[in-house]
Amino acid sequence: MMNRQEFDAIYPIGLTPQQHEVLKLLLQGESEDAIAKSIKVNNSSSVKHLISDICQLFGWNNEEGKHYRQHDELIRLFAKYKPELVMEFSTLTGAAA
After folding, report:
1. Among 66, 68, 67, 84, which Cα is nearest to 27's?
2. Is 0.85 surpassed by the pTM of this model?
């Protein structure tokens, strides 16, 4: 996991306003469909792409041909460095409090 200095170099200044909004909603536990509706895009595919871009900023890349998104890692990272932005961490990840 990245250290605080690396995190602070990316968040919040490294994100576009739209990425920032998507991240905020994701950290609040919103589904991709709900995020799509909130940011006024036609489908969750656009949201998946934005989430993938956010993950890449934090150093996580999808393997060639894979569509796995690093949601849990992103949530854990924010729970560590910006816990006030994350909905109850144990609720999102199933982790014990």
Report:
1. 84
2. no
Chain mean position to CA 8: 15
* Per-residue model confidence as pLDDT tens digits over 41-93: 988 888 888 988 998 899 887 665 555 557 788 888 999 999 999 986 445 44
Tokens of 89: 């961490």
| Distance (Å) of CA 68 to CA 5, 15, 49 | 26, 21, 11
User: In this structure, are residues 57 and 73 in contact, taking their beta carbons and an 8 Å threshold?
Assistant: no
Q: What is the rounded CA–CA span in Å between residue 18 and residue 51?
A: 10
